[in-house]
Design a protein that fits this description.
The protein is mostly beta strands and about 120 residues long. Helix content is about 0%, strand content about 50%. The strands form 2 sheets. Strands 2, 4, 5, 6, 9, 10 and 11 form a 7-stranded mixed sheet that branches. A 4-stranded antiparallel sheet has the order 1-3-8-7, with no helix packed on it. It is globular. The termini are far apart. The model has no long low-confidence stretch (mean pLDDT about 95).
């Protein structure tokens, strides 16, 4: 059984920080599998935020470069998204995903709201 479970979302003030976590099933948590974070704001398409490539490199959306950091901890099969200097336009539902053996797996999403 494959599961991805996000946590860490919530309300944060502009300029603040938040860390999202995604616990991934061990059977698909591999440094060779692309994995990362997407987000979707109301009325907008889902967009890539940050990702690990199959080669272990990282990709960031231009809008979050220099502010967000993606990381993963192999020991407990957890992926993180450290969000710094957040802006109101970062408000969205954040989803973690993993690509494994030709299939895409998604978490249920966690809401991030950036507001005073």
């Amino acid at each position: 059984q494959v599961q991805l479970a996000e946590s860490g979302g919530g309300l944060v003030q502009p300029g603040g920080s938040l860390r999202l976590s995604c616990v991934v099933s061990a059977n698909i948590f591999s440094r060779h599998n692309p994995m990362g974070w997407y987000r979707q704001a109301p009325g907008k398409e889902r967009e890539l935020v940050a990702s690990f490539t199959s080669g272990g490199g990282t990709i960031y959306a231009d809008s979050v470069k220099g502010r967000f950091i993606i990381s993963r901890y192999n020991v407990d099969y957890t992926m993180y998204l450290q969000m710094n200097r957040v802006k109101p336009e970062d408000s969205a539902v954040y989803y973690c995903y993993v690509q494994s053996s030709g299939s895409d797996y998604w978490g249920q999403g966690t809401q991030v709201t950036v507001s005073l």
